[in-house]
Amino acid sequence: MGTGNENYSKLVLIVDDDDNLLFNLGAFLENQGFRTITARGVKEGLDAFFGKRIDAALVDYRLVGQRGTEFVWEVRRRIPGFPIVMMTAYLDEWVEVMIKRYAPLECLTKPFKSEDLLRALKKALHGQPER
Predict the structure, then answer these.
(1) Exposed, middle or buried: residue 36 (CB in 10 Å: 0-12, 13-18, 19+)?
(2) Contact assessment for residue 106 and residue 118, using Cβ atoms and an 8 Å cutoff
(3) pLDDT in tens, 57-106
(4) Global pTM?
(5) What structural domains and CATH numbers belong to the chain?
(6) Backbone angles phi and psi of 13, in degrees to 5
């Protein structure tokens, strides 16, 4: 069982096209007391998001043939301020501009440390809007 018992009711959606990352992030977060669901792209992520009561999302910026900001835009259009943490291995000036456009949005640069992931996720969850 995880160590963060205050997290047990939180369901985190992880959107990434890397199966290893999906597995590892899911296992880590579940070990920390979160529940997780994974998706391999924007459409699958949106289907999961609107089909379940998701509390927060971790979203990769670059997905095969897509951008994670497409997911962010659709979710935030319906639920402004929804807690999302963007992940990217390619943090450059353009990516920073795109991420700031969807502010407030936490962002992690891959590879990131587990404590940075938890800090960003907890910060995003603080002040979560009602669904």
Answers:
(1) middle
(2) no
(3) 999 988 988 888 899 989 988 998 899 999 988 767 766 776 677 656 78
(4) 0.87
(5) 5-125 (3.40.50.2300)
(6) -90, 130
